[in-house]
Amino acid sequence: MIIRPKVRGFVCVTAHPTGCAANVQEQIDYVKKQTPVEGGPINVLILGASTGYGLSSRVAAAFGAGANTLGVFFERPSERGRTASPGWYNSVAFEKQAKAAGLYASSINGDAFSKDIKDQTLERIKADMGKVDLVIYSLAAPRRTDPETGEVYKSTLKPIGSNYSNKYLDTDKRTIQMAELDAATDEDIRNTVKVMGGEDWELWIQALKDSDLLSDGCKTVAYDYIGPKVTWPVYKEGTIGRAKLDLRRAKAAINETIGSIDGAAHVAVNKAVVTQASSAIPGVNLYITILFKIMKELGGHEGCIEQMARLFKDRLYNGGEVPVDGLGLIRMDDREMGEAIQNAVAEVWPKVETDTVDELTDFVGYQEEFLRLFGFGVDGVDYQAEVEPEVDFE
Questions:
Q1: Catalytic residue status for 164
Q2: What is the signed CA dihedral for 295, 300, 304, 307, rounded to 10 degrees?
Q3: Cα–Cα nearest to 182, from 241, 244, 239
């Protein structure tokens, strides 16, 4: 079949297997052009390994450090002529390339919050890897079922304390609109922390520790985002921000758990990039379009793979101490949050209206990046050619 993008709101409901594979290959090629990561990890578990920072972490570990990788994700395979999710195609392509390079690569598809998937993962590590020396936690989901109680929690994207109003970019209409969000209830906050906070990260590390599957000196990293003040009411100071604070609490708890084996837990604050999630956050997509234009002009623009390659080489495995800020965070957003960049964003933000979107933002680049998430618009791919949507792991 010929597969074309079908965008509905903030989601593209189709994905292109050849385009997704080409995207993965581009990331691999980028990492292979960098100098190898010296003293890097040997066996890596990536939780949330199929898209975004999780996928790029897997590529950086495998092709930058020569690591064996086990990826856990929850993706949809193709069925009845319907395309698979992009994360499915990404993971199939990654495994194929990793195995061709002589690297161990295995994947588990299912709900990483569940006890069943945790048990499957522990058994796979025990059988195939022995122990892991790096655990990447990059899960993002709208809901979570507590493995002990069965209670289902749903995350929300709301401000805390008062209602929120700010402008955002309607990408379908290419217009500037106003977003109105009601303030979160206590239950909204609690549920969001349960889904997006650090509790599940703790459960994973505890399960690995109890099963003696963590190597001495192991590291674990979870990902965070802070962003500029203009987005703080709905992000940093909202329900998602409260969950991210819990992630930092979990970091301290995990450090106590793995301290006896000289392990270390970290939280890395990453740069704003185009994702399905960021597209749906009021104000964030507009900020990203402004940021991209400025960083491309002033320098320092990065996507997921550039940051993860830098995280592995310059932060986690630099031959010395892992550099952190005053809050103990690894700041991969250092270039984004530079004074010159943020001053430029602050100057442009109030000037952006519907008739100045093309002039003041990188709307075109944003749209291109969004479609690339689903395998569309990748150089070298013939989108007029028939392609088989059913692609599976070998």
A1: no
A2: -150
A3: 239
**Residues 67-96, mean pLDDT to the nearest whole number:** 96
Q: What's the pLDDT tens digit per position in 352-374? A: 999 999 999 999 999 999 999 99
Q: Is residue 10 scored above 80 in pLDDT?
A: no
For residue 275, what pLDDT band results from cuts at 50, 70 and 90?
confident
DSSP state string for 198-226? SHHHHHHHHHHHHTT-EEEEEEEEEEE--
Phi, psi of 188 (to 5 degrees): -60, -45
The full set of domains in the chain, from first to last, is 7-142+192-272+300-334 (3.40.50.720)
pTM, two decimals, is 0.96
Q: Quick one: pLDDT at residue 179? A: 85
> String of b and e for 266-286 (b: at least 16 CB within 10 Å)?
bbbbbbbbbbbbbbebbbbbb
The predicted pLDDT at position 278 comes to 73
Find all residues with CB under 8 Å of 118, minimum gap 6, and list them. 112, 147, 203, 204, 207
Encoded tokens for 389:
């949507």
Helix (H, G, I), strand (E, B) or coil at 322: coil
Convert the pLDDT of each residue in 212-246 to its tens digit: 999 999 999 999 999 898 888 888 999 999 999 99
Instruction: Give the N- to C-terminal CA distance of the chain in Å, as an integer.
Output: 22
Q: Is the dihedral of CA 255, 40, 125, 120 positive or negative?
A: positive
Chain centroid to CA 268: 11
Report how far residue 123's alpha carbon sits from residue 338's, in angstroms, rounded to the nearest whole number. Answer: 44
Count of positions (residues) in the chain: 394
- CB-hemisphere CA count at 13 Å for 261? 22
- If phi > 0 it is left, if psi is from -120 to 50 it is alpha, else beta; for residue 321 that is beta
> What separation in angstroms does the CA of 18 have from each of 52, 94, 96, 113, 392?
18, 12, 13, 30, 13
Burial class (CB in 10 A: 0-12, 13-18, 19+), 299: exposed
Choosing from 53, 168, 225, 235, the catalytic residue is: 235
Mark out the alpha helices in the chain (DSSP H runs). 17-33, 52-65, 86-100, 115-128, 186-196, 199-210, 239-258, 276-279, 284-298, 304-310, 339-348, 357-360, 363-372
Residue matched to tokens 């929120």? 164
